[in-house]
Amino acid sequence: MHALKKNRPLRRIVLASAATVSGMVLLLSLKPHTAPTLATASTRPPAVSGGSSPSTGSGSRSGTRTVTGDTVRTRWGPVRVRATIKSGRLTDVTAVQYPQDNPRDQEINSYALPQLRREALAAQSADIDMVSGATYTSTGYRQSLQSALDSAGL
Q1: Domain match, 26 and 68 both
Q2: Are 138 and 93 members of one domain?
Q3: Same-domain status, 101 and 147
Q4: pLDDT tens digit string along 5-47?
Q5: For residue 37, how many other CB atoms are within 10 A of its CB?
Q6: Which pTM value belongs to this model?
Q7: Which domain holds residue 117?
Q8: Half-sphere exposure of 133 (CA within 13 A, CB side)
Q9: Number of domains forming the structure of the chain
Q10: Residue 60 reports pLDDT greater than 60
Q11: What's the chain's average pLDDT?
């Protein structure tokens, strides 16, 4: 007769309980891809209209200004871009916040961010091509850069 038949109900209960406990332990041991984000108010520049912050230079188109775009939440983590504008031209773009919680994020962004920067400087806008394999970072980069350019009046 089979081991789980009616003549041994205690064994069936023990095995079912062990399977349930094992399943719960496995489910609870799964970790989400992104770590919980903490409030970063101390490291975030002071917000001015739309989450951007002009930092240096005059307010005219002839000075040098640095503006930080909005933080864009993506599936793998937040993306935030800082743009430097001199004489009405985009002269530098830096990603100040991007997904880097695990080695795969670091690998993807180590090749994607320089490409996105080159594209933005060449296009002088946020209308840039996305990097294959870094779709979420590219989307967040473009949106944050556009918010920075909007706040700078470009």
Answers
A1: no
A2: yes
A3: yes
A4: 567 778 888 889 999 999 888 877 776 554 444 444 333 343 3
A5: 12
A6: 0.59
A7: 64-152
A8: 11
A9: 2
A10: no
A11: 76
Report yes or no on 143 lying in a domain: yes
Amino acid making up residue 10: L
Q: Are residues 26 and 88 in the same domain?
A: no
Q: Quick count: other Cβ atoms within 10 Å of Cβ 56? A: 9
| Contact (CB, 8 A) for 65 and 85 | yes
Q: Are 22 and 73 found together in one domain?
A: no
Q: What is the pLDDT of residue 25?
A: 84
Q: Are 127 and 145 in contact (CB under 8 A)?
A: no
Phi, psi of 121 (to 5 degrees): -70, -35
Among candidate residues 144, 66, 64, 46, the one with its CA nearest the CA of residue 99: 144
**DSSP-derived 3-state class of residue 135:** helix
Phi-psi region of 153 (alpha: psi -120 to 50; beta: other; left: phi over 0): left
Q: Please indicate, yes or no, whether residues 19 and 71 belong to a single structural domain of this protein.
A: no
Going by C-alpha positions, the residue among 116, 121, 124 that lies closest to residue 98 is 116
33: DSSP letter: S
DSSP summary character for residue 52: B
Cα of 37 vs its chain's centroid, Å: 11
How confident is the model over 125-144, as pLDDT tens digits?
888 888 888 888 888 899 99
Residues 6 or more apart whose CB falls under 8 angstroms from that of 27 comprise none
